[in-house]
Amino acid sequence: MKKITTSLLGLLLSTSAAFAEGELFIYNWTDYTSPELIKKFEAETGISVTLDTYDSNETLLAKLQSGATGYDIVVPSHNFVEIFVSEGLLQPINASELEGAANLNADFTSPSWDKDNTYTIPWQWGTTSFTVNTDVYGGDINTYDVLFQPSEELQGKIGMFKSADEVISMGLISLGLPLCNENPEDMQKVLDLLKAQKPHVKTYNSDGILERLTSGDVAVHQNWNGYSIRARDENPAMKYAFPKEGVIAWADNIAVPKGAPNYDNAIKFIEFLLDPENIAIQSNFAGYSNGISGSDAHMSEKLKTAHELSPPEGTPLVFSQTCSPEAVELQNRVWTALLQ
Amino acid sequence: MTRLVETIRSHAALIPATAMIGLFMIVPILIILVYSFLAPGDYGGVKPEFSADAYQRLLFQRDLFDQLVFDPAYLKIAFRSVWVAIVSVVGCLVLGFPVAYYIACQPEERRNIFLLLITIPFWTNLLIRTYCWILVLRDTGLINGGLMKLGLIDAPLTLLYTEGAIALGLIYTYVPFMVLPIYAALERLDRRLIEAARDLYSNRWVALRHVVIPLAMPGIIAGSILVFIPALGAFIAPDLLGGGKNLMLGSLVQLQFSSARNWPFGSALAMVIMAMVLICLYAYARSSKKNGGGMVH
Amino acid sequence: MNQKHDIRWLPGFNWVTLSFFLFLYLPLIILVVFSFNASRSATVWSGFSLEWYVKAFANDDIQRATKNSLIIAVCATFNATIMATMAALSLSRNRAVKNKHLFGGVLILPLMVPEIVTAVATLTFFSAIGLSLGLGNIIIAHSVFCIPFAYLPIRARLDGMDENLEAAAQDLYSNKWDTLRLITLPILMPGIVSGAMLAFIISLDDFIITLMVAEAGSTTLPIYIYSLVRVGITPEVNAISTVLLGISVLIVTASYLVGKKK
Q1: Nearest CB neighbour to B277, from listed C13, C34, C112
Q2: Cβ–Cβ below 8 Å for A54 and C123
Q3: Radius of gyration (Cα) for chain B, nearest Å?
Q4: Which domain holds residue A82?
Q5: pTM (2 decimals)?
């Protein structure tokens, strides 16, 4: 018995010695981290990676605010980075001093949400607009009128997101009003717009968008560009719209929370991601653009030619912002009034 | 001293459960109570300053122009959720009672198999099973497809994104919580009891009403509690099957802890919900004390 | 035993039961069928394919999540059922206990608080006392909210039981424990089994509380599935669910065979 125990122990120790470089705990959305990328990282560095998942920025925020620790890498969206920083939940990575920092795309070097890349580097970025089933609707799709003043064949077949922020932001842009609006009169206009649209909306839901589009339940649905590519895989008639009034853009970023147990390994992962070849693996997996120049050479043909990833010339890209508490309060009132 | 020891000894069996709940439930509830009287933090969380705003908000809102007006929105949401929960309880009862009775009448070896058969579907995740209902109910789904193929209808029936779909989804989610307690109460159904009842009453159904149902009553009450309260806070069926066009209590409270960033208001809502449920249960306990019998005593 | 002659038989109840099981299993059949779907969609059929099973078997994360879920559910069910049985016996039979209403209310307290609220408060509490037991944190949280689900069916059963049986047994056996072991518990068994089953399925499917309380490395299957929002549900979820279904069917068959032997 003793012999077996000691040999088992020896076996265990030797296998963990293979990962003697330590561990890394990544916290991200499900299926949003390329397994191939992780395997490559593990092979190159000997670090053992554990992936955990969350379903929204809000959950991540609530968890970190309530004191949860144990994660080395988190992936907040750009409009949340400011919040995480002001609540003291992130620690600096000073990406501008890391190896590979020169690879950062100009748009993502010192972006408006993170001066000097003190806390983040970009992970994936994309746009949010809507997907139209052109089998059902043949008109010009590059305008918000398709959503808010739907023609007859689209009435009753519209799908919107469940999140107050994304729906109201689209309303504001389509009316030409500023985002994160603190003006009650402006928000009243948005409420009226959304109330007028509500009878034509089939459902307010952010899950199962692909299902609804391909089954014909809806003919137009609010969507993210990478996800729209998947809809087009099922039905080539699915076109992603780039409304001329302005397209909402977002960027998910890699950051290191305070209290991360493996800070050095986290930095190693970040330097790994600054390499164009590596981040291209992630883009090919998730179907979204990334913020590292030079990665184009390694991206798949399908992504290079996807119309969803290249907005037409002259379309304004509007990065959503971190809203002040007053603006959030107005947003709440509009949302509750809409869905009461 | 011996009296204390004696009290502890007699309550010994109760201690693990109450200690567990006492520590891990009551302390969190106190935290929530405190939160409900604080001001919301700028980006979620709470600020350590006193404020009764959260409770005021339940009935009174500052409208978009900052005037304080009576706001029925939250009452509407609450009534809608209570109504849907009641419908779910009734639906589960109508469907679940015959099933529990049937299983209780089976020979012994078969009973446990039936029970296990009921729980097998629940090994799979609720979200994916609710998606399957979408497939069944939607305009191009199984029901409409089947009915149209048989030539019974010309245009698809709107089954999905309706209140009926929500009720169906909720009944589907919670029916084992009705069947299992009723079965547990009915399992003692003795043949001789029924024989005696049949002698007394002319009709099978009358015998059912006067003998079987009272026997099953503890199970019916237990089942109703186990369906009603979770159904109040449910959000999957309402969101996926109901279209999310009208908020329910579950979604409303969740919203406060996510994008609405108003933890105190969410806490206040939770306190109110808890208070109302406790009042109902207490009222029931008092009334059943008078009639001698019942669940919560 | 011909059912038509069984005095307990009521007309129509067998049809209701049949419809009930069809109702219960219809989504399951769909779920299994679509696990073989050739495209990404979980509800629009495009052809037969085993790719999702291949993916699921290569996917370490989903397997780890499933394992975590099962471990947590088994432990929480065990804890909750034992505690609930003891509490039910005490409240129902022990005359020395006063304030039964109060205790009864406490026992079903976890039911009454909206899940998100319990989730945030429990996380705050755990962080404040520095509790960090990995899966243990989740097991504690689950045991707590499984107690009412186990307690109520057991209590329902106890209330319907004939106390005279136990009084008679007391005369025969001098020992309280023997009465408990040889008379009360066997008769109570259907209630305990019902309670344990409810606790198990409630724990297996819990999302919100688990999401908040989970530490690094403790992702469970519901968390994994619900967090697919960014990329959408794929038949991989169907595949892993079908595998779980297979496991549960095996367990049912095994217990049936074991029961038959007796």
Answers
A1: C112
A2: no
A3: 24
A4: 9-125+252-304
A5: 0.83
